[in-house]
Amino acid sequence: MIGIMFVLVLFLQMAHGYSALETDLVVLPNVVLTAAGSAYAGRLSDKFGGKYILRPG
């Protein structure tokens, strides 16, 4: 996931001409949802087991 974010940032800035702030605003929802989802998935995997949480992903 880190690799794709790196390429996405370069693509947005070089190909589309976004500034650093505009790129951050585009990427921000993904970062927030990933952080919230990983905390929630950690609690769920403790409760139900990791294989049931990883299977849908």
| Strand content bin | under 5%
Count of distinct strands: 0
Question: Structural class from helices and strands?
Answer: mainly alpha
- Helix-strand topology string: HHH
- Distance N to C terminus: 13 Å
- Largest sheet, described in full? none
Overall average residue pLDDT: 88
Question: How does this structure look, described?
Answer:
It is a single chain. Helix 1 (2-15) runs antiparallel to helix 2 (20-48). The protein has helices spanning 2-15, 20-48, 50-54. The model has no long low-confidence stretch (mean pLDDT 88). The chain is an all-alpha fold. The two termini are 13 Å apart. The protein is built from three helices and no strands.
Keywords:
0% strand; elongated; single chain; mainly alpha; 57 residues
How are the secondary structure elements laid out?
Elements: H1 2-15, H2 20-48, H3 50-54
Brief write-up:
This protein is mostly helical. Helix content is about 85%, strand content about 0%.
